[in-house]
Design goal:
By secondary structure, the chain is mostly helical. Helix content is 43%, strand content 0%. α2 packs across α6. The structure holds heme C (HEC).
């Protein structure tokens, strides 16, 4: 009995807690639209962290996102947009939601490395 419980505990602690990997998440969920350079599908996300919202040249942003262009992509704004794009900017053309807070944090960290 005791050894069974011990084995169970061992099994639980041996399961590695997988940290969210921003690069992996980005490649799987974002890169199909957000390429290194601005394209027809989406603006580039290089230097997006800290930049003015909807400010990449050569992309035709939605009126919804343009209406936010006086604001900056702070961590909090990025988090709110990724959690619920249409809640942050009703009418935005980006619909992709990232449900898990730790995934959003990892993606924001990764976006900061995009230059
Ligand atoms: C289906 C295509 C598509 C996918 C997938 C996608 N996006 Fe977008 N994204 C867009 C479009 C289109 C816009 C511009 C939206 C607008 O003009 O309302 C945008 C805008 C953005 C912006 C604001 C850019 C700026 O210059 O203000 C950020 C940040 C962003 N996306 C992050 C992400 C992240 C992170 C992911 C992955 C979790 C992702 N996007 C996945 C299409 C996409």
């Amino acid at each position: 009995m005791r050894s069974a419980i011990f084995a169970l505990l061992l099994g639980l602690t041996a399961t590695p807690a997988l940290a969210a990997d921003g690069a992996q998440l980005f490649n799987a969920q974002c890169k199909m639209c957000h390429q290194a350079a601005t394209g027809p599908l989406a603006p580039t996300l290089a230097d997006v962290a800290g930049a003015k919202i909807a400010s990449k040249p050569g992309f035709n942003y939605s009126p919804a996102l343009k209406a936010k262009s006086a604001q900056t992509w702070t961590d909090a704004n990025l988090d709110a947009y990724l959690a619920n794009p249409t809640g942050f900017a009703p009418g935005t053309r980006m619909m992709v939601k990232v449900a898990k807070p730790e995934d959003r944090q990892a993606l924001i960290g990764y976006m900061k490395t995009l230059k």
